[in-house]
Hints:
Helix content: 55-70%
Structural class: alpha/beta
Radius of gyration: 47 Å
Amino acid sequence: MIDLQWLLVCSGLVFLMQPGFMCLESGLTRSKNNINVAVKNLADFGISVALFWTFGYAIMFGLSWNGWVGTSGFFFDIGNDFELGAFFLFQAMYCGTTTTIVSGAVAERLKFSAYVIISIITSGVIYPFFGHWIWNSFSFNNHYTFNGWLGNLGFTDFAGCSVVHSIGASIALALLIIIGPREGRFSLEGYTRKMNGSNLSFSVLGVMILWVGWFGFNGGSALAFDSTVAKTLVNTLMAGVAGMISGCAFGWQKYKLPEVELLINGTIAGLVSITASCNLVSTPQAVLIGAVGAFLMLCVKDLLEHRGVDDAVDAIAVHGGSGLWGILSVALFIPADVINNGLSSFEQFWVQLLGIAVAIAWGFGVSWLILSTINRFIPFRVSVEEEEIGLNVSEHGAKTDLYELLTTMNKQARTRDLSLRVPAQPFTQVGHIANHYNRVIASLEISTAQLEEGNKELAVAKNKAEIANQTKSLFLANMSHELRTPMNAILGFSQIMMRSQSLPAEHLENVNIINRSGNYLLNLINNVLDLSKIEAGKMSLNSGDFDLHNLLAEVKDLLQLKAVNQELKLDFKIDRDVPHYIHSDETKLRQVLINLVNNGLKFTKKGTVNILVSLVNNQNKLDNEKQVHILFAVEDTGIGIAPEELPKIFEAFTQTEEGKNSKEGTGLGLSISRKFVQLMGGEITVTSELGKGSTFSFDINATIVDSEVLQSQNHREFSRVIALESGQPCYRILIVDDQSVNRLILVKMLQPLGFELKEAVNGKEAIQIWDEWEPHLIWMDMRMPVMDGYEATQHIKGRIKGNATAIIALTASVLEEEKTIILSAGCDDFIRKPFRQSVIFDAMAKHLGLKYIYEQKTISNKLKDNEPLTKEDLQIMPSSWLEKLYQASIDLDDDLILELVKKIPATNRSLANKLISIVNNFQLVKIRKLIEQL
């Protein structure tokens, strides 16, 4: 009688596993599905017990037909059979547990009707058949006499490690493969998104209830209250503890956190692992089995996620992976004489492996065939929309206050109606959230109304700003035209005069000075316009090839006199590996350097201003091996900048206190410099200490250029076009410009080459000449009275024969958008005033196919003339001549220096040219310093 009482108690404990699984699975799933999860736990238990009573018990424990299926006990009546009632009650709890394992794994995506179908197939077919093969015996008092074919072979599974856990996990795996993962669980890129549970503390409670149920699960499997019960219960306890510790330890090491799920699943994995052998192994062995089972659970979990299998509660890893290990543990840890079924340990191991194979083949294979067939006709899975809403609502219509909150919030997001308010239930947590949300929305509604009013004012201000911007653009265009038109005459005629063979050398040198000064003035004009472009956000990079070392020498020469006057030392230190020739924006780099060095001189009373140039570490080198990062640092020993002023110094119209006191500058220099540096692919930074000085550092991206390439590009600067190659037709050229001086420049450039030339003062006259004379090419000014160049071009290009005439626009505008307008009007090319002769000749060659004869000059000598003066250059002259030159540089007597230059032999013309350049640029201090080094 005591055995039956114990079995009834254990049946009650096993029943506790149902609420345990409900708590565990509801807590591990999202709140929008937890009602569905709880309800299916109740439903599948009821269905499984009903089916087990109807025919499941008969299939499993009825009289065996050749060890394959039971044939008696269908719809049986317990009557007064106490033993049969207790045994059925205990086995019904087992069947319900198997079905719950399946439903937990596939949670959050199945229709409730699908749960019903799965419960029927699991508890009515798959579970009882496999149970018959292992446990079939109708003798309560002689429960070790097995009639099932696997049991007869010696397969040992004390408390259902295979019958309950492996079968449940195998069915779950088949179903997961059929229905696929939850929406958003795995990304296309292979990223696994963790879907956090709604109430992990609820899940922890579920595990503790399951642990209690496991005492009945394992303790009652002996079907007797004998001497093995205490051992079974202790081993169950210790295996669960070992699994919890092992799962937490290994998971902590892997995921860097002691995640709650690791303790939960580690505990269950330990309990599952010991189920098959808990009555016969020692306590240390139970601890080892539980610990290994938890570790294997983590391995199977990672494998499934890697394969894209989405197990909502990790049931397959816990019950399948740990369960298979528990079945093998029977052969690995229990001696053959203890099992006492006539098999050796080796034979027992192979029988256990056979049982595993059968469990997987039957549980996975049969369920996949049946379920995949049914799924084709009756889809198991809910729609994407229903899954998004949640199964609580879509399957059961179970609305909650949280659902009402989310529904209202979603409606507000769709309609943008801030007048909507969330229903707030008093005295609930969600009700408090709803009240706070309603207050936030009310405040947002007021802020939105104020914002809309502000937007109206902003729209008015924006309209005014656009009008002002258009006015400014018009002003810039006009100013550009007015400034660049006279510059075109200055540079154009100076270039023509430089070609003259009859001018004396002194006059030729004066013309060279005019040309250089004009180019310098043109650069200043361009810089002023560039500043306007920065303000308008239209600044762009204008890269080209240049000599970096030469540029640094120019900057030094330009500011050396100021340093000497302030009794400061200006020192340029250039690393040996800094390239000479680079491709970048020379003008912007020069302006940044001048600005920073000039600031250093202005705020340094004594000491030095150092300019350091180096390459950034090769690790930061760009993909192309010729692309480099060049670092510039300007160090001074000046007054420094206060820490509170450092964050503001790069802001426009912002100056330090010392800068304001100096009453120099506008506060734009550093702001412009930063913009220029950013355009060149770098960034500018500053470090400073009051009373000790400042260091401004910036880097730029540049491309190394071969010196031969740069020399070939400079060929046009030193080689003049003197004639057309023979055999070319006589081309007719029409020059259209309302300014006679501009027309005269082009006439004087082109007439010596034998072109037929005609002139027009406006577009109307140009059309008339074109129609009668049919020129090959027209130089078209775009701004003219009567009819401008745009209208004239459109008229000409609108005629069929106009396509035979090339039209090249000449404009003084610097606005980039005007280039697009000009080309869209029909012009074939676009050249800005002032222009170089080489640009004019290149454009004509491009559009007419001209070939020129160039004046032969030695480029290397010209390039050499542009190089800075060195002490080696001066060493070729006698000491007496050097003494006179030294004294003249001290006295700042440029006339005497020019007289001394005349005494330089013709073979050393490069030295003479360098000295003349120094005199013209007022850099006599450089001569004195070089002679002092001799």
